[in-house]
Amino acid sequence: MTSAATPAASLNKFEKLKAQKDGLAVKAQLDQFAQLGWEAVDETDRDHRLKWVGVFFRPVTPGKFMLRMRLPNGILTTAQMRVLAEVVQRYGDDGSADITTRQNLQLRGIRLEDIPDIFHRFQSVGLTCVQSGMDNVRNITGSPVAGIDADELFDTRELVQQVQDMITNCGEGNSEFTNLPRKFNIAIAGGRDNCVHAEINDLAFVPAYKYGVLGFNVIVGGFFSAKRCDAAIPLNAWVAPDTVVALSRAVLEVYRDHGLRANRQKARLMWLIDEWGIEKFRAVVEEQLGHTLQTAAEKDEIDWEKRDHIGVFPQKQPGLNYVGLHIPVGRLYAEDMFDLARIAEVYGSGEVRLTIEQNVIIPNVPDSRLDTLLAEPVLERFSINPDPLTQALVSCTGSQFCNFALIETKNRALALIKALEAELSLPRPVRIHWTGCPNSCGQPQVADIGLMGTKVRKNGQAAEGVDLYMGGKVGKDAQLGSCVQKGIACEDLKPLLRDLLIEQFGAKPRQEAAVSS
Ligand code: SRM
Ligand code: SF4
To answer: PANTHER family recorded for this chain (predicted)?
Structure first.
């Protein structure tokens, strides 16, 4: 599908490859690809179209693919977690999984010849990775404490699932939405603290009351890219929960049919909104929806600071608790996944949840079982009360697996935080986000301190460095941070962060803290 305004000749390379063959077509070729082996598969299918079924060729580790799941609202059963753990386990030292900044999992080390069997297993437990990459709608995020939060406004679980089912034809794949102009992000907030970062999504639903009815104000166009980052703007629309799926469909159809396709750097939804103006965009969406939209409620219900859910919290159900475990930079191995599945089954209700901070929540733990859960050895690795700097650390994949990366991120982030923690004591968590390149998968713009990978020159040599972002505000009155200093060599980062933490975040050198206490 091409926009009426875009002549075929000026289509970019990705539009051309989609026009030649829809990405979803590779779903029917997986057995054939498995037999051929990764080196013999057509390059365009292997490097691009396979992403339509969540299979990512990794140029950094050729032959070892990444599988990006879809986990609506970040929720999975322990049976599903075990299947994922078994998949990762097959690959020994190459196998691992990362919790992503979209409340999702990516599996690593995957061999193409195993894909048919892996997908068969996924299907048997209701898992899918369809349409999780390239010009598709990404994992749909929702409140990680949906249905258990004592102060929740709206339980987002069912709606998130319904929106995913509409987009993916219940996980089977839906060619109506496999040729968007670009990626598309959707979030549904259900709590008072905006724990989905609604403002950085192309389409987001934020709880708001109108005429005494709880529904959602709608915001549109939020995105990060290497060239431009923008927070979502109001559509000036309020919808009741039963219109969320239809409105999501209408917005996607408008974007699909009219979104800009000539230049991939200018293809995200906000560029169309810019071209049309929000009023025209709203009118076209209404037309697509088939009825007028109510204007937005005067105010939304986001009035809390953002929570990170690390620790033990009583649920709305008396006698039950949710336990938030810190997973350092979201990295899991097969053993960890089996352990998490086991504790969720033994102490909880057989459910594991993920957060956009790359952590895990075990819900539904009865008061009587808390102490035994907290004494489990796995909680030494995945703590409920990590040091404040570790607690709020987020990192994208970086150069270990990502070919866009300009720097190594996850291991460096952990090592640096440990070194800083050894020297400083912090009164509260400071949200430090690492991202390996300007694509901003690690969301440095929402952090207290954001670090974006770049190349610098140090002593006449090329070296890994970062641009420093500050001022990201999350939760109530969320605001994007901006770049305050460019080109800091990673080697020089520790003293700079140390000073910053002392001057702006109340950190105290450990010796001084010990004397004054
Ligand atoms: Fe991302 C591309 C990883 C969240 C903006 N992102 C990529 C690729 C697929 C590039 C590639 O093929 O190597 C990365 C895969 C590396 C790997 O092997 O893991 C990648 N993105 C990630 C993840 C895994 C980061 C993480 O460690 O958590 C996140 C997966 C989310 C998921 O489960 O689907 C991830 N990416 C994001 C976010 C954050 C968010 O959604 O809140 C953003 C910024 C928000 C946005 O998109 O508006 C983001 N990723 C990008 C972009 C820039 C998009 C643009 O419009 O220019 C790219 C590059 C692109 O699409 O051309 C990209
Ligand atoms: Fe890769 Fe860059 Fe995204 Fe990090 S920010 S995962 S380095 S594309």
So the answer is: FERREDOXIN--NITRITE REDUCTASE, CHLOROPLASTIC
8-289: CATH topology: Sulfite Reductase Hemoprotein; domain 1 (3.30.413)
3-state class (DSSP) for residue 54: coil
Distance separating alpha carbons of residues 351 and 148, to the nearest angstrom: 12
Residue-wise pLDDT tens digits, 117-144 = 999 999 999 999 999 999 999 999 999 9
The verdict on whether 182 is a catalytic residue reads yes
Same fold, 8-289 and 390-516: yes
Identify whether the C-beta of residue 431 lies closer than 8 Å to the C-beta of residue 415: no
Flag whether the pTM goes above 0.90: yes
| Ligand 2 nearest-atom number relative to CA 397 | 6
Tell me which of 60, 409, 435, 445 to substitute to probe ligand 2's pocket, judged by most ligand atoms within 8 Å of the beta carbon. Answer: 435
Which position among 442, 453, 465, 481 bears the catalytic label? Answer: 442
Tokens encoding 435: 């991202």
404-437 per-position pLDDT tens digit: 999 999 999 999 999 999 999 999 999 999 999 9
pLDDT tier, 515 (very low <50, low <70, confident <90, very high otherwise): low
Across 114-202, where does the E strand assignment appear? 141-142, 186-188
Going from N- to C-terminal start, the domains of the chain cover 8-289, 390-516
CATH class of 390-516: alpha beta
